[in-house]
Specification:
This protein is an alpha+beta fold. The chain has three domains: about 150 residues, Glycosyltransferase; about 180 residues, no CATH class; about 180 residues, no CATH class. Helix content is about 30%, strand content about 20%. The chain has ten helices and 25 strands. Strands 9, 10, 11, 13, 14, 15, 18, 22, 23 and 24 form a ten-stranded antiparallel sheet that branches. A seven-stranded antiparallel sheet has the order 12-16-17-25-21-20-19, with no helix packed on it. Strands 1-2 form a two-stranded antiparallel sheet. Strand 14 and strand 15 form a beta hairpin. The protein starts with a helix and ends with a strand.
Length: about 525
């Protein structure tokens, strides 16, 4: 739970975002690129942020804050689809300004996210809402829980499988519905079995969603009384901490690759603050200037239910590697045909780490090959492999990696049924992508990085006493020979040897040449060497 001072300070910061006329908080859309059809920069009133703000206000001792919270809850509840005949039954739109029918497509996870907040308020502080409003909240929670059951997400969708299990288990107890309690208990149990079978969460090593799962497990332990559900939640909580610790690299204060879902190339201060609170260790984060700094104790949003500590036997892994060098090989998705399984290989030494997945595609959130190393100028320069369609990550390009120690052999290809920016939500109706350029990019970011061309197809990406050597092999893509080049993008020190389509116009071209979708691949080899 947040301290009184932390909560008061957070509520004060949120004051400027509250719109009394709409009875919701305001925000500005970032560059999401899917689900919403609204453009970046659009001012909006988000439903989830508003309901969370109401929860925060209810924890305040101020009568005015609680009255405001009641109005917000009523407003958000009124925006839920409560018609069981509708496909979107039980969920909310992201924004007041964009009804469910206008979204591309609606986000069914909003039943889980908003249902979790309603369940937490009803389970932990029911005395802080009027009886009539509590009844409305229970009805809304019932709709959300029904939507969760109807959708029935499998355990492979890690954070939503866990979240929905906790919400329905809590809803069953709050609503006196034994079928919901059973469903939630069984769903959490399936997540335990699934993680044990695969040896990992399918949403593996995610700096964002492993922490979402961890928070939802803590929420479940705070609001659910059923002993079996709690046993499952505690087993998964321990599993999550083990996963987080396994990929932590102490020298760079980063999660080594590969990563299933990430929103930034370096851990943000808010994530590191969660690690500090959970481990009790003075772990640093990499600031924008490349230095290591201590995160503010209240970085990010305060937890609105009790946080639980990292298990004692896992905590030491955050301070030191098990051995040097250290290699971790793990199955993330286990298939009956082992050759189709998704696996990862990660190499660590005292100052550097490099990880890759054996197969995948270049969704903007996915880090198929990711490495860091420490220098005197930068605590963690970042090496990342990307595939770009006119400058944006291209989710229909595929990758196969074979890693041995700090060396990776990579092959690029395409898939016939993928999307553009998202894995599947934005595929063209005719299945044809138009492009000015396609680029496979080995990207080094950080302070004091440099690039050197060693010959026509070999490049050295250097920082401090280490370098990444990129060996570009001949290849053909869309019927054109691949050309390898390097350069600097924008004002940031980012050097990028690229495999590009020969004779393609620049990626900034406003008249991209049409390019029908076809199969193709190129190969490259990455090796890391000490200085």
């Amino acid at each position: 739970m947040p301290t009184d001072d932390t909560l008061t300070a957070h509520i004060a910061r949120m004051e400027s975002r509250y719109d009394a006329d709409a009875m919701m908080v305001t925000a500005t859309i970032g560059g999401i690129g899917y689900h919403t059809a609204l453009t970046p920069g659009t001012p909006v009133h988000p439903t989830r942020d508003s309901l969370r703000y109401a929860h925060e206000l209810l924890l305040s001792e101020s009568p005015e804050h609680r009255t405001r919270a009641h109005g917000i809850i009523r407003k958000v509840i009124s925006l839920q689809d409560t018609n069981p005949d509708n496909r979107t039954y039980g969920i909310w739109s992201w924004y007041l300004e964009e009804p469910l029918g206008d979204m591309r497509p609606p986000d069914w996870n909003w039943a889980d996210f908003l249902g979790a907040i309603l369940a937490t308020i009803l389970a932990r502080i029911p005395e802080r809402v009027p009886e009539a409003l509590a009844g409305e909240m229970k009805a809304s929670l019932a709709h959300a829980a029904a939507a969760i059951v109807r959708r029935d997400v499998g355990p492979g969708y890690t954070n939503i499988a866990i979240m929905g299990g906790g919400v329905t288990a809590a809803a069953g107890e709050l609503l006196g519905d034994a079928s919901l309690s059973n469903y939630g208990r069984e769903r959490l149990g399936k997540s335990v079995e699934h993680a044990g079978h695969h040896g990992s969460f399918n949403e593996f090593n995610s700096p964002t969603y492993t922490f979402v799962a961890l928070a939802e497990l803590e929420r479940t332990l705070a609001i659910v009384r059923d002993p079996i559900a709690r046993e499952h939640a505690e087993a998964l909580r321990r599993f999550a901490w083990g996963s987080i610790a396994a990929y932590y690299h102490p020298a760079t204060a980063q999660f080594a690759g590969p990563q299933s879902r990430a929103y930034s190339d370096w851990l943000p201060a808010s994530t590191v603050a969660k690690l500090v609170r959970g481990t009790g260790l003075p772990l640093p984060y990499r600031a924008g200037d490349g230095s290591l700094a201590a995160p503010e104790a209240d970085a990010g949003e305060p937890s609105l239910f009790p946080s639980l500590p990292c298990p004692d036997d896992i905590r030491p892994r955050f301070e030191a590697l098990p051995e040097t060098p250290h290699e971790l090989r793990q199955t993330f998705v286990r298939e009956k045909d082992a050759s189709r399984s998704i696996t990862g290989a990660t190499w660590f030494d005292e100052e550097a780490c490099l990880g890759s997945m054996n197969r995948g595609y270049f969704w903007t959130q996915r880090r198929v090959l990711l490495g860091y190393w420490h220098t005197e100028e930068d605590a963690a320069v970042c090496l990342r492999l990307r595939f770009l369609h006119d400058g944006r990550d291209f989710a229909s390009a595929t990758v196969e990696n074979a890693q041995a120690g700090p060396a990776v052999l990579t092959r690029f290809g395409t898939r016939p049924d993928g999307g553009d920016w998202h894995g599947h939500l934005d595929r063209p109706e005719d299945g044809v992508f138009h492009a000015g350029s396609f680029r496979a990019r080995y990207q080094l970011q950080g302070v004091g990085v440099a690039a050197h061309q060693l010959n026509d197809t070999t490049f050295a990406l250097r920082a401090g006493s280490r370098e990444a050597i990129v060996h570009g092999l001949p290849g053909v893509f869309f019927g054109h020979d691949v050309r390898w080049e390097h350069g600097q993008e924008g004002t940031s020190p980012t050097w990028t040897p690229c495999a590009t389509r020969a004779n393609a116009p620049p990626s900034t071209s406003t008249t991209p040449a049409p390019c029908a979708w076809a199969r193709g691949c190129t190969c490259a080899r990455w090796t890391g060497t000490g200085g």
